[in-house]
Amino acid sequence: MTSCNETVVTSAVSFKYPEQGQTFGLGDDVKVELDLPKGEVITSATYLLDGKTIETKNNAEPLILKTAGLAVGYKIITAITDNGSKKDTATINIVLNSGMKPLQLSYKVVNVLPHDTSSYTQGLEYHNGRFLESTGLEGQSTLRWVEPASGKTLQRMDLDKQYFGEGATLVGDKVVMLTWKGNMGFVYDAKTLDQLSTFPYQNSREGWGLCYDGSQLIKSDGTNRLYFLNKESFKEESAIDVYDNKGPVDSINELEFINGKIYANIYTSDIIVVIDPKSGIVEKHIDLSGLLDKGYKKVPRDANIDVLNGIAWDKQGKRLFVTGKRWPKLFEITLVPQ
Q1: pTM
Q2: Nearest CA among 37, 31, 34, 42 for reference residue 15
Q3: Is the pLDDT of residue 8 over 60?
Q4: Which of the 8 DSSP states describes residue 148?
Q5: What is the predicted pLDDT for the residue at 241?
Q6: Given a cut of 90, is residue 156 above it in pLDDT?
Q7: Residue 6 pLDDT exceeds 90
Q8: Which residue, among 284, 281, 298, has the nearest Cα to 338 in the 3D structure?
Q9: What is the average pLDDT across 230-254?
Q10: Which of 22, 68, 18, 73 has its CA nearest to residue 47?
């Protein structure tokens, strides 16, 4: 800011290293160094990562940030400095990518079961000999219990026609179900499918997939972010970003929690990814290309058949099931190296 008689110069602490938005592999050491105004000496520098203090120094010596054990995604590095007379704050963002190439898996079909072609499948789970299935589309969205052997609906609840149903999961004696753009989730009695309550979304403005890890709900919203919700209040308590060795993995849809890992459909693809819920790293890619053809035996496809979506795990029987939107078949598969 200048006038005819004077010039006022504003100086501030910034970062020399790393560069804004710089990408690192998880496990890399990141050099963090401040860029001080000429002649300035600081008496303390406190460094924070995503708001949590990691180290305090009594000078401007560089800091080595260890990234091993962190979650992938965007990270905010903050430095709060003090020169004895004033404090200053500087922030910068970096990105942590997975340094691990996912294990590539294919499949073997163990069994082929019937599936209702009116089911625009959004969520799928297996509990006590039945499938819990949620379906989508305005005016057609349902929540249902299904008999595996016949594919017949044993019990069904229709959502109000204004809602586009999405993922659902069983939590104790209740079923929690999402809607797509309704900014609202529903809670039902698992036995009667009577509606008990509703809850609003928070930062995740859309609802896609939903599963339960035994302590928290895990929710997707079509991006590469997963949200962890309180099972009682449905408030978002934390979140992770999902990355593989190439970068963010977007379009995460239907979810299933299996043996401590999150299995997720990638919307419009034949890929299921296996995600570490602590780091957000994709550990495995499961390629299910050609799966539906194995259930058809050269019978022409129905034009209404849509994409792969639906993962269910029989915990007691150790069986993995998959299907798709309006698919006529549901498949029990085992995973094999590609």
Answers
A1: 0.88
A2: 34
A3: no
A4: T
A5: 95
A6: yes
A7: no
A8: 284
A9: 95
A10: 18
Q: Regarding beta strands 195-200 and 261-266, do their DSSP bridges make them parallel or antiparallel, or are they unpaired? A: unpaired
Distance CA 269, CA 251 (A): 9
Q: Which two tokens stand for residue 59?
A: 């000078």
111: tokens are 């069994």
Number of neighbouring beta carbons within 10 Å of residue 160: 12
Query: Which tops the pLDDT comparison, 311 or 204?
Result: 311
Picking from 281, 306, 302, the residue whose alpha carbon sits closest to that of residue 103 is 281
Tokens of 1: 């800011």
Taking every pair of Cα atoms in the chain, the longest distance, rounded to a whole number of angstroms, is: 88
Tokens of 173: 């004696």
How far, in Å, CA of 50 to CA of 21, rounded?
14
With cut-offs at 50, 70 and 90, classify the pLDDT of residue 147: very high
H or E element that contains 19: none
What the block records as the tokens of 64 is 């080595």
Distance CA 192, CA 235 (A): 25
* Cβ neighbour number for residue 196 with a 10 Å cutoff: 13
The residues pairing with 188 across neighbouring beta strands, listed in sequence order, are 175, 195
